[in-house]
């Protein structure tokens, strides 16, 4: 239920989840590095997000207290953001199905290990934003580069082409521009952002198909169809598709195959040895249906193989 608040233009909603939800943990995958113009956590613990909804731009503030979620939203997209708030926080996430998967896993030691990880984060949910292109652009910027390089490009493009966040959002927040704007960004601004021509072309081309991509989330979330459409586009492979569907469709079974770090991390967590994509998928197979959830739990565990070589350097395409 939403209502008008005392602050001009604000809409409000209170929601009591049927199971515990950790708001910060569930919404954290949408944060693209420090200073992300579309995501902030304020000192009071609230999470602020901006989004370009089907109704227009909006700003959402989410806080939790004593098991109740309190949402406030501003802008033309405010009502939509509040209506879909439970989905963003994983109301459709089948945690009971995950428990059944653990109980039926033949590898008892692996199941016990994953169950222990899950017990540490009972409020973790895999939520869905229903905004495909919003998840796609930063995912493409993150292709084959270190995070800080991709996040720098994201910040630059958002500050240059985004619009100010509606309402009393923290300073510097912005709403992602619509697909038609991404289609018209000139080559020199992609260069200034630090994104080379390949990633720029991938985003521009995807912007031409944004409406079709969005339909896979809005017309009843269909992650398989989204995967098919995404991977049919030049420059979008299995890794990018998974990164998008994890966020837009809340797919708990979309592991990021092709990631630079994740296979080694999964192998180390289960066996004490690093592995490759094939080895990772073999280790995750008993948890099919929830493979991304298991990866997420391993990421949160802090289990990492020891670093034995130099870090992948950040490349600054602005100097090329």
Automatic annotation (TrEMBL):
Superkingdom field: Bacteria
Q: Name one GO cellular component term.
A: cytoplasm
Reactions listed under catalytic activity: Hydrolysis of alkylated DNA, releasing 3-methyladenine, 3-methylguanine, 7-methylguanine and 7-methyladenine
Which keywords does the record carry? DNA damage, DNA repair
Q: Annotated Gene Ontology MF terms?
A: alkylated DNA binding; DNA-3-methyladenine glycosylase activity; DNA-7-methylguanine glycosylase activity
Residues that span the membrane, as ranges? none
Its Enzyme Commission number(s) read: 3.2.2.21
Renumbered to this chain, region (Disordered) spans 1-43
Q: Which InterPro entries match?
A: Alkylbase_DNA_Glycosylase/TA, DNA_glycosylase, HhH-GPD_domain
Report the record's Gene Ontology biological process terms.
Answer: base-excision repair, AP site formation; DNA alkylation repair
| Family annotation (PANTHER family) | DNA GLYCOSYLASE, DNA-3-METHYLADENINE GLYCOSYLASE
Identify this protein by name: DNA-3-methyladenine glycosylase II
């Amino acid at each position: 239920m939403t209502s008008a608040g005392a602050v001009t233009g604000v809409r409000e909603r209170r929601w009591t989840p049927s199971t515990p939800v950790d708001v910060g943990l569930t919404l954290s995958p949408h944060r693209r590095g420090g200073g992300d113009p579309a995501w902030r956590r304020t000192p009071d613990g609230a999470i602020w997000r901006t989004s370009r909804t089907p109704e227009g731009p909006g700003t959402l503030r989410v806080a939790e207290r004593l098991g109740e979620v309190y949402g406030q939203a501003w802008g033309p997209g405010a009502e939509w953001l509040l209506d879909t708030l439970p989905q963003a926080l994983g109301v459709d996430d089948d945690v009971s199905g995950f428990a059944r998967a653990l109980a039926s896993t033949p590898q008892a030691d692996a199941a016990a290990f994953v169950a222990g990880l899950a017990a540490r984060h009972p409020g973790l949910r895999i939520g869905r934003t229903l905004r495909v292109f919003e998840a796609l652009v930063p995912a493409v910027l993150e292709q084959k580069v270190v995070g800080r390089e991709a996040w720098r490009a994201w910040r630059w493009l958002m500050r240059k082409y985004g619009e100010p966040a509606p309402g009393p959002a923290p300073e510097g927040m912005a709403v992602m521009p619509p697909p038609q704007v991404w289609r018209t960004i000139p080559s020199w601004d992609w260069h200034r952002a630090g994104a080379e021509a390949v990633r720029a072309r991938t985003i521009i081309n995807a912007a031409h198909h944004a409406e079709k991509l969005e339909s896979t989330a809005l017309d009843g979330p269909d992650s398989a169809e989204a995967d098919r459409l995404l991977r049919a586009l030049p420059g979008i492979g299995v890794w990018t598709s998974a990164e998008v569907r994890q966020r837009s469709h809340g797919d708990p079974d979309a592991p990021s195959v092709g990631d630079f770090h994740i296979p080694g991390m999964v192998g180390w967590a289960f066996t004490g040895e690093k592995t490759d994509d094939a080895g990772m998928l073999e280790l995750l197979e008993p948890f099919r249906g929830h493979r991304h959830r298991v990866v997420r739990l391993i990421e949160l565990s802090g289990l990492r193989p020891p670093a034995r070589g130099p870090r992948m350097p950040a490349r600054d395409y602005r100097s090329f």
